Amino acid sequence: MSTTRSLDIQPLVLDDVSAIEEIEQRSMPAPWSRMMFVSEIVKTTSICLGAFVEDRLVAYVIVSRYVDAWHVMNLVVAPEHRRQGIATRLLASLFEQAADDERRGFTLEVRVSNDAAIELYESLGFQGQGIRRGYYTDNREDALIMWRDPREP
Ligand SMILES: CC(C)(COP(=O)(O)OP(=O)(O)OC[C@H]1O[C@@H](n2cnc3c(N)ncnc32)[C@H](O)[C@@H]1OP(=O)(O)O)[C@@H](O)C(=O)NCCC(=O)NCCS
User: Fold this and answer.
1) DSSP per residue over 30-57, as a string?
2) Pick from 41, 69, 72, 91: CA 20 to 30 A from residue 152's CA?
């Protein structure tokens, strides 16, 4: 496992959108559009964090605040930077930022075939709580709905 000592976690800004798009296109079967990222970054009810190595974006997480929960909308690590603990560090930073918010836990949907992401989320205290049938429009794949209690360690 390579080191992530030089990893810097910062809020995303509009200037990061081109780098986000480049990683998104290489990583996701149904990539978000540029406008979807722009609208989340400018929203005051979202937390959008980037992980940078030597000032280059290598990963990002987008989270929206809903009435009852924080919703993890998007999380991607650039393929050449995976299995170095970067997603774990991004999510730990997110949990710290939301720590004052005792009312809201975290929820997300993940493709039922996405073993890597499901393992990651389980390692951070998320639990599967149900299935949304045919949730993904590109291939009608089911989504596993996961939740993490606000008071998880
Ligand atoms: C899922 C993803 C975000 C994980 O990012 P990452 O930085 O590689 O994850 P971490 O290094 O923090 O991994 C933490 C733990 O998650 C699990 N995990 C991560 N990738 C895994 C894989 N490919 N296979 C099995 N377990 C995996 C392991 O338990 C891992 O701990 P370990 O490395 O000590 O065994 C990354 O693979 C990715 O960007 N995938 C494509 C986009 C995606 O699927 N996003 C999630 C959408 S819901």
Assistant:
1) SPPPHHHHHHHHH-TTEEEEEEEETTEE
2) 41
